[in-house]
Design goal:
With 335 residues, the chain is an alpha/beta fold. Helix content is 47%, strand content 15%. α5 crosses α14 and α8 packs parallel to α14.
Length: 335
């Protein structure tokens, strides 16, 4: 099941006349290093009628003391139960008629709130989303540039109506009509919520372009660790939306993973037996680049920027990510 594509209103569509309170809910767990910048960026929004709620998922760092320095509301869980529960806990004390779920490890352009609620009043609309995301880091390496090109390609496809997306802003009634976030989903919570909203209430709408600068991986270790973790904890999400993985599916995935994982070994017969064996060696990066059109578009953006190093590194980065995902999935099969 693919992501739902958002409604893209014409440029002359009148904006939302809503001027009530928007509750911005920030779930957090041990994000004391990044939370202050997140809060400050939200306090600087052009849409002024907001309340900020920090929902602490039992952090063990300085989060509790840190939030006292800001004009925010604070709720804390007794035990660590995951971001979905933290988001729901924040929503339970929210006073606004619109909920916007923000990130503790990201900061926002100052028109983010104004744009994401811009078209929530349109008929049949139940959720809002902006396009625009960049990696928040001081590093400038091929991994960061690769990810930024993919993020730009994804945004371009959403704007063109060719790609679905999640949602971060919801009218209060819509959010509770589907009982909020699923606390059993450790990964894909936002996509799961939007799919349920679209099925039960209405579609998402593209508010505009406003950037979230997010602490995405900027080292190879964190890049692979995140991919592995996401695959390992995606069982609940996959069970809900793709059906359980029976024996046949598990065997088919294992065979596919083994064929991809063996990529470096394909060079051996190509060098020592016959040049025709270069075909399977070339087939793996071709498959990884063409598997998702967003990936292909991102790679084209990289070449157009003239970034040869990142363009050449892209198939390797995709391969390493697929290795991490594959190991995570296989672990989840037998957990």
């Amino acid at each position: 099941m693919s992501l739902p594509k958002p409604l893209i209103p014409p440029a002359d569509t009148p904006p939302n006349p809503f001027d009530g309170v928007v509750s911005i809910i920030i779930p957090t767990f041990n994000c004391a290093a990044t939370l202050p910048r997140s809060i400050r960026s939200l306090q600087a929004q052009t849409y002024r009628n907001i309340e900020i709620i920090v929902s602490d998922d039992a952090s063990t760092d300085d989060t509790c003391a840190l939030v006292t320095q800001f004009d925010v509301r604070y709720v804390r869980s007794a035990t660590n139960r995951g971001a979905a529960v933290a988001r729901n806990n924040g929503a339970k004390i929210a006073r606004g008629e619109i909920y916007l779920f923000a990130e503790a490890d990201g900061y926002y352009d100052d028109d983010y709130v104004e744009k994401i609620i811009r078209y929530l009043h349109l008929p049949g609309v139940a959720a809002g989303i902006n396009v625009g995301r960049r990696v928040w880091t001081d590093r400038d390496n091929v991994l960061v540039r690769h990810q930024n090109d993919l993020l730009q390609a994804a945004a371009d496809r959403v704007r063109a109506g060719k790609r679905g997306t999640g949602g971060w802003a919801f009218p209060k009634g819509v959010f509770w009509a589907v009982n909020g976030y699923d606390p059993e989903c450790r990964i894909g919570q936002d996509v799961d919520l939007v799919r349920r909203v679209v099925e039960a209430v209405g579609r998402t709408v593209l508010g505009g372009e406003s950037v979230l600068y997010h602490k995405d991986p900027d080292t190879l270790r964190t890049y692979m660790k995140r991919a592995h973790r996401g695959a390992y904890f995606s069982g609940r999400f996959r069970e809900k939306w793709h059906g359980g993985a029976g024996l046949v599916k598990k065997l088919a995935y294992t065979a596919k993973f083994a064929a991809l994982a063996a990529w470096p070994l394909y060079v051996i017969p190509a060098l020592g037996v016959h040049p025709i064996f270069w075909l399977p060696f070339a087939a793996v990066p071709a498959y990884l680049l063409f598997e998702d059109l967003t990936t292909w578009d991102g790679w084209r953006l990289t070449w157009r920027r003239g970034d040869v190093a990142t363009a050449l590194a892209t198939p390797v980065l995709l391969y390493l990510r697929r290795l991490a995902i594959g190991v995570g999935r296989l672990r989840s099969f037998f957990a």
